[in-house]
Write a structure and sequence with these properties.
The chain is α/β, with parallel strands linked by helices.
Length: 573
């Protein structure tokens, strides 16, 4: 196999690669969120679109029902006065109402804003304020978090206000709060009452609104994880959602209805993109789990015959540690990103392997990839080439000028799924002068247009004059039996400049040896990439954020303290 049709590199000798034209990409359909739902509903109608197990009951919606419930939300929003581009916050776990709210907001001409259920009071106050949501649809209780109490603690007027008439200096745009269930308190109205606001709104009016939405209109807002600062609001167009939803089955080489699962929140773009796209674009079903629980996940995957499983390596470790693991029938599982542990289960038999891809929240997940059926000898160690419609360049991170083909630098990207910008930021604060988003990731492009990713420039470890990607090391360590999570950092060293140090959290009750971790790395990595030290921590020792990340700088500080290493003196001047 050669270069995919239409993909090419610049003839200037510079590191600029072009994807094929978007119009030539197979499998694309309607380019708006509402148009996408209407198209898949027209195709698959009575087939099961989603399923959730809760309180011993199995809830199932067909494609027709998903469209009907989404139109019900849309009619209610119109009846409540939502205008064009009005922002609707969605603070929910993975449940049917989340998808009805996402699609319903879009059908009404509004903008869905996905809010994290991991939010602390301070984070939630920031998200609601920054998003300028006028309506908040929320789940009152998520595990130990009481969001009604949290919101009332931030803005006491919520307790005394009237539904649809909140007047708040804290949240100056927010006027309506809607809680799932029967909660009715102050300015908060229950879900059923909210839906009745749409009784007098004709469905034809909603569809006329949906028809007026264009692919480049605002489609939705996600927030970054906030591991280095306050979360950034990332604004995406309608077509960014739709293109990726249509694209996933082609990239993953899925040619049958796919039942898809994740235990991670739909407020992260990767989950709502991959899980919804792989399921609904193929006529399959989304299998919903409100939050990750290993025992429940195994039961769901087995009972619902899940084929696509989307999670993180440390979650696969938890599945493996579950008492249900040994007896589970996981024979339906076929597609698992980074799924070495699941592929090793005795009932799983698949030749499928994830196509290595590169993406960010700013590009609505992947922007480079080949397909899962691309021969390994063409993919080699690359992260694919620019996807249709995308242009990629590698630049000198200091000057911003493209580097010669094959040289290393910062990866920059633009294309139809690139964000419209950050909330509150001018275009020049989001993109370079040519409209490229500069990712902060390092890599190179070869003559075939393949992109070779080399990690975050800011997190790269410089040891003995060579660059080491922490992610590459952590991917190997994640496969060591007994490892729950790891994060590799560079610690100052007089001889090497930086020493590679792996910080590891073992599974509860598991004792790991430093020598075993290092040996596993030596079996797969060049010697200079292997950790010189392995430090073991408890979960409590890692200050995790809601998406189970920790700042690299914080891990580095922990490692330096454990090793008794002082920070190098800053250079004068």
């Amino acid at each position: 196999m050669g270069i995919p049709p239409g993909m090419h590199v610049s003839d200037s000798g510079l590191s600029i690669a072009f994807g094929s034209p978007l119009l030539e990409e197979p499998g694309q359909g309607a380019q708006t969120i509402g148009g996408y739902l209407r198209e898949v509903a027209a195709r698959y109608g009575a087939a099961e679109a989603l399923v959730m197990h809760e309180n011993g009951q199995r809830l199932s919606w067909s494609y027709d029902e998903l469209l009907a419930r989404s139109l019900e939300v849309a009619r209610a929003l119109v009846g409540c006065g939502l205008g064009k581009d009005g922002r609707v916050g969605i603070l929910m776990t993975n449940r049917p109402e989340f998808l009805a709210a996402l699609f319903g907001t879009a059908l009404a001409g509004g903008v869905p804003v996905a809010l994290s259920t991991f939010s602390t009071p301070a984070e939630l106050a920031w998200l609601v304020t920054a998003s300028q949501a006028s309506v908040l649809l929320f789940e009152p209780q998520v595990l130990t978090k009481d969001f009604h109490a949290m919101l009332a603690g931030i803005e006491p007027a919520i307790l005394s206000g009237q539904p649809g008439a909140l007047a708040s200096h804290t949240f100056p745009f927010l006027n309506r709060l809607v809680a799932l269930g029967s909660l009715a308190a102050g300015a908060v109205e229950p879900w059923d009452t909210f839906l009745r606001h749409g009784d007098a709104v004709p469905e034809a009016l909603v569809l006329a609104r949906a028809d007026s939405v264009s692919p480049t209109d605002t489609g939705g807002i996600f927030f970054s994880s906030g591991t280095t600062s306050l979360p950034k609001g990332i604004v995406h167009s309608q077509r960014a959602f739709a293109i990726q939803w249509w694209r996933w089955p082609r990239v993953f080489a899925m040619r049958e209805p796919v039942r898809s699962w994740t235990g991670n929140g739909f407020f992260w773009s990767g989950n709502v993109s991959m899980v919804v796209g792989s399921a609904l674009s193929t006529g399959g079903a989304v299998v919903l789990q409100r939050w990750f629980d290993a025992d429940e996940a195994i039961d769901l995957i087995a009972r619902e015959k899940v084929a696509f499983v989307n999670g993180r390596p440390h979650q696969w470790v938890r599945l493996q540690a579950s008492s249900r693991w040994g007896d589970a029938d996981l024979s339906s599982v076929k597609y698992v990103p980074r799924g070495d542990i699941l592929w090793a289960h005795p009932t799983v038999d698949t030749a499928w392997r994830v196509p290595m891809s590169f993406g960010t929240t700013e590009t609505m997940t992947i922007c480079t990839s080949f397909t899962a059926d691309t021969p390994a000898d063409f993919y080699v160690t690359s992260f694919g080439g620019p996807l249709p419609g995308n242009v990629l360049k590698i630049v000198d991170p200091l000057t911003g000028a493209p580097v010669p083909l094959g040289e290393r630098g910062e990866m920059c990207i633009k294309g139809p799924t690139l964000m419209s910008g950050y909330l509150g930021k001018a275009p020049e604060d989001c993109f370079d002068a040519e409209g490229f988003y500069c990712t902060g990731d390092g890599g190179r492009v070869d003559a075939a247009g393949r992109f070779f990713w080399e990690g975050r420039l800011t997190d790269m470890i410089k040891t003995g004059g060579a660059n080491v990607s922490p992610e590459e090391v952590d991917a190997v360590i994640a496969r060591v039996p007994g490892v729950k999570r790891s994060q590799t950092v560079g610690v100052p060293d007089d001889l090497l400049g930086e020493m590679v140090v792996a910080c590891v959290v073992p599974l509860d009750g598991v004792e790991l040896a430093e020598s075993a971790v290092i040996a596993a790395c030596r079996a797969e990595l060049a010697s200079f990439k292997c950790p010189r030290k392995v430090l073991f921590f408890t979960d409590e020792g890692f200050a995790l954020t809601g998406n189970e990340k920790i700042k690299a700088a914080d891990v580095k500080a922990l490692a330096m303290a454990r090793l008794g290493v002082e920070a190098p003196a800053s250079p004068a001047g």
